[in-house]
Automatic annotation (TrEMBL):
Protein name: Ankyrin repeat, PH and SEC7 domain containing protein secG
SMART domains, per the entry: ANK
Organism: Trichoderma asperellum
A Pfam family it matches: Ank_2
Biological-process GO terms, alphabetical: nucleoside metabolic process
Molecular function in Gene Ontology: catalytic activity
Keyword Cell division listed: no
InterPro entries for this protein: Ankyrin_rpt, Ankyrin_rpt-contain_sf, Dendritic_Spine_Reg/Scaffold, Nucleoside_phosphorylase_sf
Length: 684
């Protein structure tokens, strides 16, 4: 890589943790004994604080005054004990810390160019776009620390379950044009074998200087001189998802590459071989192992003696009771009717709650559709409105999970039909979200509120059905006279959600029932056509245009029409559709003054460029920075785009407002192929 000889080692698929990292490093050094420095590059969970405004996709570098890495005791942390700074590990090598300082100074003056580096890489490898491109900014949600992802929906995405209600999210200003995005943060990285998923513990550790959590570095730092670099893919809380992992890995790798450019090979050669450092620890480790073995033998003997004593003290009756009560937490969950009856006869606590979710036996039975047990518990006095830790009632869980007969029984026994959980979700709301058609019909028949809104999103059953693509439920809601223009807290109407998420059948259904195609959400100010164009839903865009949607409508956030958005995101077929329907090919957004052609050049969409130029787009159009499409293509290393624009007659000596030419940008950003192409053209 450049002038350096690089060895890349990765953890085996599905493995993570301190021991796995140590094992891979050991094997690497065995195969390549001349390795002198290491970079541990990957993803991690961020720890945002007032000092560090960490966002998803940002990069964290393990550099601090005391150490770059601390190994923490997660078991103690989740019990709320004071964080003890006793596990600090060795600093990264001086060579790497010096390089970090130099790169930090460079970034302060010129910006970090991480975003451009990632874009350039994805242009060269377009098949990686799906997994590694940057997700939408709206997918970056930092929830307040007290907001916990609902336990029964542990596998569901936060976009569907927790959403973006202002009362549950941390209010953060958008980054401006002069701000680095992604940003680079320097501080303490906390490492352990256990995944951090507790926002309250995260915040306490952030007060001590921790900016990131991960699971490998502590296994290496004292024996493998390296610098830890992590791309932030989540916020170390219960709202974890994989949406940002690919992009976060790319930003971390881009930083690592920039760092290597600042280190000369002769300085690396002056460092000691890591293998020689490791061998120096061998004898000490061997002695520790022998001592640990002796301690283990003593511990085993002690435990055996204690076990024998405990068994002697347990009477046969006590053991029988233990066996009976061992089943208590599972009886309602798994539907053990006989065991439930036996426990009731022994006067077991019918309102006992599990310690994790706060669910009662009735809650679990209803959630899993065990109608017989539900009836048995209710007839023996179980509280039909008992709530779990998220205020979920038995009726709500029966509706959510689609158990119609159990739901009917609970309603018959007098359960509140519009009970709300902590999110404001009613049984009808959850049934609509989870596509429970049979449940919905039953609830509506029994008088459930069809316009109920949850408190996190302001979503009604119709909104959730449209958002999640449940066409039959949308039809059912319309037939029951649900408000077709209802809006959630972001001003999104059902038509906007359906167009945004690509649900063509629902869009058609809503338009046929006179939904307003020009309605705009309040967060982006975008119409249904804008969302369809932006997200690549050609058939929906065509349908909306056929119904008279305004082709020149602009969003309020960027002042962009549908054509620049489609071009920016590489949706060639939609660009073609819009041009054929009369969209202005030279329309510019209000934020940057960029045309569709400029955006296509920036993101490397050559098919869009060919189509636009073929319809007469101006290849010399300048934005607010006096930059042309070719200048941006050169800046981002899009060699094929530069060549294409040159063939279309674009000038190569143009200067932007900072005085930079395409050649200067290409040289500055290390795009050798573009440099050669431009040099050759200038010489001819």
């Amino acid at each position: 890589m450049g002038r350096h000889n690089i060895v890349i080692a990765v953890l085996p698929n599905g493995e993570y943790g301190l021991s796995s990292a140590a094992r891979v490093a050991r094997d690497m050094l065995h195969s390549f004994p001349n390795v002198r420095i290491g970079l541990m590059v990957g993803i991690g969970g961020g720890a945002p604080s007032l000092k560090h405004d960490i966002r998803l996709g940002d990069v964290v570098v393990g550099i601090s005054d005391k150490s770059g890495i601390v190994q923490y005791d997660f078991g103690k942390a989740i019990q709320g004990q004071e964080f003890q700074e006793t596990g600090f590990l060795n600093q990264a090598p001086t060579l790497l810390r010096t390089a970090v300082g130099g790169l930090m100074a460079q970034y302060e003056s010129d910006g970090n160019q991480i975003k451009e580096a990632v874009s350039s890489a994805l242009v060269r490898k377009p098949r990686l776009q799906k997994k590694y491109k940057r997700p939408e900014t709206t997918a970056d949600r930092l929830y307040r620390s007290h907001v916990v992802h609902p336990p029964f929906d542990s596998e569901a995405g936060c976009a569907a379950v927790c959403g973006d209600d202002a009362s549950t999210l941390v209010d953060r200003a958008e980054r401006g044009e002069d701000d680095d995005d992604p940003a680079i943060h320097y501080g303490l990285i906390a490492s352990a074998n256990t995944l951090m998923k507790d926002a309250l513990v995260r915040d306490e550790m952030a007060k001590k200087g921790v900016v990131c959590f991960e699971m490998e570095a502590a296994g290496l730092m004292n024996h493998f001189p390296c610098l830890v670099i992590r791309g932030i893919c989540d916020y170390s809380d219960s709202h974890k998802n994989k949406e940002w992992q690919g992009y976060a890995a790319m930003t971390a790798a881009a930083y690592a590459k920039h760092l290597l450019y600042r280190i000369t090979p002769n300085k690396v050669e002056a460092e000691n071989k890591i293998s020689s450092v490791v061998s120096g620890h061998y004898e000490v480790a061997k002695q520790h192992r022998e001592i640990a073995g002796e301690h283990l033998d003593v511990a085993k003997e002690h435990l055996k003696s204690q076990k024998d004593i405990a068994n002697e003290r347990l009477s046969e009756k006590e053991r029988e009771c233990h066996q009976l009560f061992r089943l208590t937490s599972n009886t309602s969950y798994y539907g053990h009717v006989a065991v439930v009856k036996a426990l009731i006869k022994t006067r077991a606590d019918i309102e006992a709650r599990d310690t994790k979710y706060g669910g009662t036996p009735l809650s679990w039975a209803a959630a899993n559709g065990h109608e017989d047990i539900v009836g048995l518990l209710i007839n023996n006095g179980a509280d039909i409105e008992a709530m779990d830790i998220n205020n979920g009632t038995p009726l709500l869980w029966a509706a959510k999970n689609g158990h119609a007969s159990t739901l009917s029984l609970l309603i018959q026994k007098g359960a509140e039909i519009d009970a709300k959980d902590i999110t404001g979700g009613t049984p009808l709301l959850w049934a609509a979200r989870n596509k429970r058609e049979g449940i919905i019909g039953l609830l509506i028949e029994k008088g459930a509120d069809i316009e109920a809104k949850d408190v996190r999103h302001g979503g009604t059953p119709l909104l959730w059905a449209a958002r999640n693509g449940h066409e039959d439920i949308v039809k059912m809601m319309i037939e029951n006279r649900a408000n077709i223009e209802t809006k959630d807290f972001n001003g999104d109407a059902p038509l906007l959600w359906a167009a945004r998420n690509g649900h063509e059948g629902i869009v058609k259904l809503l338009v046929e029932h006179r939904a307003d195609p020009e309605a705009k959400d309040t967060r982006h100010g975008a119409t249904a056509l804008l969302w369809a164009a932006k997200n690549g839903h050609e058939s929906i865009a065509r349908l909306l245009l056929d119904k008279g949607a305004d082709i020149e409508a602009k969003d309020t956030r960027h002042g962009a029409t549908a054509l620049p958005w489609a071009a920016r995101n590489g949706h060639q077929s939609i660009v073609k559709l819009l041009v054929e329907r009369g969209a202005s090919i030279e329309a510019k957004d209000a934020s940057f003054g960029s045309t569709g052609l400029a955006w296509a050049a920036w993101y490397g969409h050559d098919d869009v460029i060919k189509m636009l130029v073929g319809h007469g787009a101006d290849v010399e159009a300048k934005d607010f920075n006096d930059a042309t499409p070719l200048l941006y293509a050169a800046r981002n290393g899009c060699e094929s785009i530069v060549k294409l624009l040159m063939e279309f007659g674009s000038g190569i000596e143009v200067k932007d407002s900072s005085g930079q030419t395409p050649l200067l940008w290409a040289v500055k950003n290390g795009h050798d192929g573009v440099v050669k192409l431009l040099d050759k053209s200038l010489e001819s």
